[in-house]
Amino acid sequence: MMIDHPILGPRDAGEFVYMGCASLINRPDWQAEDALQQFTDYGYQRDNPSGGHRELWFHEGGDRSWLVVTRDTVTHAITQVELARDVARREGRSK
Amino acid sequence: MTQTNRLQGGMIDRSRTLSFRFDGKAFQGHPGDTLASALLANDVRLMGRSFKYHRPRGPMTAGSEEPNAIVELRTGARQEPNTRATTAELFDGLVANSQNRWPSLRFDALGVNDWLSPFFAAGFYYKTFMWPAKFWEKLYEPMIRRAAGLGSVSFEPDPDSYDKGFLHCDLLVIGGGPAGLAAALRAGEAGARVILADEDFTLGGRLNAETHEVAGMAGHVWAAQAVARLADMPNVRVMPRTTILGAFDHGTYGALERVSDHLAVPEKDKPRQILWRIYSKHALLAAGATERPIAFENNDRPGIMLAGAVRSYVNRWAVTPARDVAIFTNNDDGHRTATDLRAKGVNVTAVIDTRPDAPDGGDFEVIKGGVITNTSGRLGLTGIEARTADGGQRRISCGALGVSGGWNPNVALTCHQGGRPAWNADIAAFVPGSALPPNMSVAGAANGALTTHGAFHTGAEAASQILDHLGLSAPAPDLPEAEDGPVNLTPFWHVKDAKRAWVDQQNDVTAKDVKLAHQENFVSVEHLKRYTTLGMATDQGKTSNMAGLAIMAEVAGKSIPEVGTTMFRPPYTPTAIGAFAGRSRDKDFRPVRKTPSHVWAEEKGAVFVEVGMWLRAQWFPLPGETHWRESVDREVLQTRKSVGVCDVTTLGKIDVQGADAADFLNRIYCNGFAKLPVGKTRYGLMLREDGIAMDDGTAARLADDHFVVTTTTANAVGVYRHMEFVRQCLFPDMDVQLISTTEAWAQFAVAGPNARKLLRKVVDDDYDFSNEGFPFMACAEITVCGGLRARLFRISFSGELAYEIAVPTRYGDAMIRKLMEAGEEFDVVPYGTEALGVMRIEKGHAAGNELNGTTTALNLGMGRMVSKKKDSIGSTLSEREGLNEDDALKLVGFKPVDSSKPVPAGSHLMTKGSQVDAAHDQGYVTSACYSPNLGCHIGIGFLKSGHARSGEIIRLVSPLTGIDHEVEVVSAHFVDPEGERLRA
Amino acid sequence: MRYSGFKVIKEALTGHRGWGPAWRDAEPKSNYDYVIIGGGGHGLATAYYLAKQYRQSRIAVVEKGWIGGGNVGRNTTIIRSNYLLDGNEPFYEFSLKLWEGLEQDLNYNAMVSQRGILNLIHSDAQRDAFVRRGNAMILNGADAELLSTEQILQRYPFLNVNNARFPIKGGLAQHRGGTVRHDAVAWGYARAADQHGVDIIQNCEVTGFRIENGACSGIETTRGFIGAKKVAACVAGSSSRLMTKAGMRLPIESHVLQAFVSEGLKPVLPGVITFGAGHFYCSQSDKGGLVFGGDIDGYNSYAQRGNLPVVEDVCEGGMAIFPMLGRVRLLRMWGGIMDMSMDGSPIIDRTHIDGLYFNGGWCYGGFKATPASGFAYAHLLATDTPHETATAYRFDRFARGCMIDEKGMGNQPNLH
């Protein structure tokens, strides 16, 4: 597979390490009333779709960026690659 | 007499003669021959035995689709089982042996299977061999296994090497026949970066096998000229002997180049083969088509081959498989073979054409509407019986029979990403479907264009379209004149009522087996394949799948596409495992990481141990020491008595900098770091988000905004990845930067009562590191040896007064020598990982065996470290009930009641007097050693309710190693539990 | 029809005319007591034990394609019960015991071959872990033996010990482990279930669940609605795809695991061998092909195919321990879709929807589990209580913090 790194251009997927669904960015609030329930869902439940999937890849053999890659889990076609940090900020994460 | 079947002409180099041996007998051939063509030239048709019935077999094809003529090529460590004689290039001194026969190819004892074949119908083994149950492993299975299998391995390491390479191109052209050549020329001339790969050693495809003229010259001459033109283009790479194995994601293709297989041994320093990974923008599949046989009674005798293969042998290799040849066909191609044979003066005894309206022959007889009902000749064809249209029987003598049932486009690579071929009734074959791998096109016979003209035009046209995509323009095609005859074919798959008509020749699957599968409800293609083993042989069903499908369609009363399609998986042809492994074998299987003191340790005679990819000194034996324990005990005792030095560079080191660095560490570690003063180090425990301990180490605060984090050796990479995840994905606005400096600093532990005195001689004078000035857990950036920058940490894994000193890696070797020199007066010892392990067990420190991915802070005795006042990774989920049970496992120590007994790691713990079984399991020993300080074996491990059971005598069992004795539960801190020494 | 040596001989002499269908192609009825979704090994085994052991009737297995076309036909055929944790070991040992009597039970020769499985040890820490595991196996009633390198070399004299990157320091053997002819497992269960009256309905894809008031009353399929008192999902690899139709998210990701077979060879490997310092395990089939595999590709995928890097990684592992394999050719590679669960262990449990049951999350341990999975699932379906060997395989174990994590990799499925 080839991942079109937003900064570095197309790179072999072998340079990257896969983690999983990009929903792992949305870590719950530890002080929420139902934090335990929220963390359980966050940690263990997955959409696992057949089709488009937003997922986290780490450029371990490269610039050490975490990327959010949108990839079809049936065809493996990649339609979008973003810096995870940008995605995280867009989704409201900060400090 | 040699080469009795050699004809005139052909693409062989008659100026040179090559000697070779098959089954011990000497033969001769010429450069340009394959093993099969050379054997046929020498009138050898019998080349192998089939898998199940050990039927005598000869070559059926002239290419990589060969099911029958497979041999053990070469001898000794280079022996290659199951090598196709039809693709093995002849070289001087080649040695090949037939396989799957005993005692000889002509007389094979297991040929008896053939007589017993009624008992060995498809799937018979699922119905018997069940009684008595014990007999399977002891009797039936060994019997079956000995009879099964094909060639044998040498059992010796492969002496050759394999390389891997990476190529990039605009267009990968797969196949160097007329379509591929036309496309490559077109794209090459337009300036595209082109790779043209073909499995054959001479490009040209069918142009090399046919007598058609191309642009007024022999087809193979035109092909050679085209290849020469391509080879002259700097933007084109022509790769003969290169098979495209598979179409992988995003335009990546795997290719195998057989660099040296045509030589007796590879040239010096050259690999045998190269596995290429080709990154392409576009690919054009121009892999041609494979002829398919017709099934009829005894259609497998040596001498019976595909009609197109006969043409290849006659035209390319100037060999006829016999002096009298007959043809069996359902299309005009068979007639072409007869014509070519006649042109070379070979006698064509008859052309049996299944079509009543077959064309007339030239100077050979055509039996129209005829079929072959049987053949004769046990070890080689001697004749055929034909049934004529009027029902009459004819016996025709011949030593070879060319069979043509039409052509199947080579669609394999179009299926590698799940695409399904589509049925084309015009040629009665599957052609590539609509779902091709992205950016792949198909041209020529592979796409169903079965004429030379069609191949040229579709190849050039496909190239033009691809050039458009690439934004390149090409001049109008100037394509050579070539034949464009219509495909006249009437589908005909098998002669009915045959007792045994072979469909899959290698696996001995007959038309009747297909029918039996249907009868037993194995009707889907997948069931058919799996039940009968149709298409599962080394030829991957290239010549057999279609007939199997057609017969199934017939008995099921369905059309062929209704029954299913043939599917293909990589690799296109079987590929040496060595090629996939490349250089990653033996000592080079994985890289070796060496510590900065490695050379010095080698000089000292250290014994090394693999720790992940690292090699670390395990102990340093002195002359006279005969057992490793002597060395280790000495290193431990001397360290605790005076001072020892150990290279701890392998620990992960991560620099954490930025205004939010402390805050960041607060999130990473379950314990607090915000208030850690500058100049201090703190032990930190990192949890995974699921509350399980991930790693532990120290974080030293060198400045307000600068920490140095250490990790365990094993987790250095993973922890860094995790920290980057937390930084980039969870807290993207934190002002913090990370970099791994594991390789940047050489780090040494200096431990023991004299550690300070030793270091005083190394550290530059202006640093106060008296106990008061530099107390336990202090850290500082300092200089050593007169100005070399260094970092000093007062941390202790051994439990002694200890420091870790880090210098830039390039000074690591000098540093260890300096430390040893400075320590001479204290009788300093270097210690290895064993002594390190002993001292940490004596001290009760957790390490990898305890941080095993299932243990929590609570289990490790650090439950109270998990701060509830802050958000840190893992703190929430660590609160789950299952991780906080009253009798949770806790880390404790164990001492044997009988001090002579061991406490082996991996032993389980049982309450005294209880049953010994899993239900009563109380825990397990994680780490153990002989403690020279306590004079007995000790262990640490996890015990239900832990410390609450201190003093209890429990039972330690290891049924695996025959151990069952009593141990006392004690504190895990065997040495200096109060920590006085490390604060001294 | 009973299979026997006598019957084989009789049919051989009479032209094989007497063999009937191994199982009937059933038409779906309007309703059943039990509808099992998924005609793989586990689904067919569930139907069989439900009918035979638990004496239930009106059972159907619905299969989207052809039975046995999924992971039961795409694995490396290994059976073993060399597990560490108490949540797993009794279950897999129960499975191994069922394997041992399977052929007589089913009257079908699935070629259960207890040729032994060996895990190589390459470091002291690995030995400690394997000793703990071997002891856990024995304490759970399974067999285990710690072998020295010398003992291993007697059985595998061609192992690379002299020029190896990672030394071989022994191995943990389970002699009762081995291999089974995988397709035959599906066919054997199908035939036996069929003989107990189970309807096997092929080419019938589930398009939805009929769920009202928190209870499931049947399934919508491409062949119409099929009512059922109990609906049992059993489609590991596609679990998320299926359960989404019931509105459920699962603690599961789908990943592709590749497997490989070499060309046929005369006997090479006596048993199953697993390399402990790389990703490679291998056995030899009765036909002579070396069947081998390694790690999953590592990214979510529903494509039954993988990519080159893992092929190379696995072959590197093979060459590392068996450098004689260099000239052996890899014949075929294929991919199966694994239900990779969050702790590497399966789930056999009721769902929160009445009448809807779930079996999945088998990671790459599904094949060896086939008999016990079917048995335990049948037990759950028939009695609404978990089978004694499968009490830990609950959905709520993650919320409770009772993970069964053999590898200690945590909630990252691609690491299990």
Tell me what the structure shows.
The complex is a heterotrimer of chains A (95), B (984) and C (416). Helices cover 18% and strands 35% of the residues of chain A. Chain A has two helices and six strands, in the order βββαβββα. The mean pLDDT of chain A is 97. Chain B contains 20 helices and 51 strands. In chain B, 60% of the residues are buried. In chain B, the strands form 13 sheets. In chain B, strands 8, 9, 12, 13, 14, 15 and 28 form a seven-stranded mixed sheet that branches. Chain B has 984 residues and is an alpha+beta fold. By secondary structure, chain C is an alpha/beta fold. In chain C, 28% of the residues lie in helices and 26% in strands. Chain C is built from eleven helices and 18 strands. In chain C, helix 2 packs parallel to helix 7, helix 2 packs parallel to helix 10 and helix 3 crosses helix 10. Chain C is globular.
Strand content of chain A: 25-35%
Sheet-strand content of chain B, in percent, reads 25-35%
In round numbers, the mean pLDDT of chain B is: 96
Q: H/E element string of chain A?
A: EEEHEEEH
**Rg of chain A (CA only):** 14 Å
Ends apart, CA distance between termini of chain A? 33 Å
Secondary structure blueprint with pairings:
The complex is a heterotrimer of chains A (95), B (984) and C (416).
Chain A: E1 2-5, E2 9-12, E3 17-21, H1 35-44, E4 52-58, E5 66-72, E6 78-83, H2 84-90
Antiparallel strand pairs in A: 1-2, 3-4, 4-5, 5-6
Chain B: E1 18-22, E2 25-29, H1 35-41, E3 48-49, E4 56-57, E5 70-73, E6 80-84, E7 94-97, H2 112-115, H3 135-147, E8 162-174, H4 178-189, E9 194-197, E10 213-214, E11 217-218, H5 219-232, E12 236-239, E13 242-248, E14 252-257, E15 273-285, E16 289-291, E17 304-306, H6 307-316, E18 324-329, H7 332-343, E19 347-353, E20 366-368, E21 371-376, E22 383-387, E23 393-397, E24 400-404, E25 407-409, E26 422-424, E27 429-431, E28 440-442, H8 452-470, E29 502-504, E30 509-510, H9 511-519, H10 525-532, H11 545-556, H12 560-563, E31 575-576, H13 577-581, E32 593-594, H14 598-603, E33 607-611, E34 614-619, H15 628-641, E35 644-647, E36 652-657, H16 661-668, E37 681-687, E38 693-703, E39 706-711, H17 716-730, E40 737-740, E41 745-751, H18 755-760, E42 779-784, E43 788-793, E44 802-808, H19 812-823, E45 829-830, H20 833-843, E46 889-896, E47 908-910, E48 921-931, E49 936-944, E50 953-958, E51 963-970
Parallel strand pairs in B: 1-7, 8-9, 8-15, 9-12, 15-28, 17-24, 18-19, 18-24, 19-20, 32-34, 35-45
Antiparallel strand pairs in B: 1-2, 3-4, 5-6, 5-7, 10-11, 13-14, 14-15, 16-25, 21-22, 22-23, 26-27, 29-30, 33-34, 35-41, 36-39, 36-40, 37-38, 38-39, 41-44, 42-43, 43-44, 46-49, 46-51, 47-48, 47-50, 48-49, 50-51
Helix pairs in contact in B: 4-5, 4-8, 6-7, 9-10, 9-11, 15-20
Chain C: H1 5-13, E1 31-37, H2 41-52, E2 59-62, E3 78-79, H3 89-100, H4 102-106, E4 117-120, H5 124-139, E5 145-147, H6 149-155, E6 171-174, E7 178-179, H7 182-195, E8 199-201, E9 206-212, E10 215-221, E11 224-233, H8 239-243, E12 252-264, E13 272-275, E14 280-284, E15 289-300, H9 308-321, E16 329-341, E17 347-350, E18 356-360, H10 366-383, H11 397-400
Parallel strand pairs in C: 1-2, 1-11, 2-8, 4-13, 11-18
Antiparallel strand pairs in C: 3-7, 4-6, 5-6, 9-10, 10-11, 12-15, 12-16, 13-14, 14-15, 17-18
Helix pairs in contact in C: 2-7, 2-10, 3-10
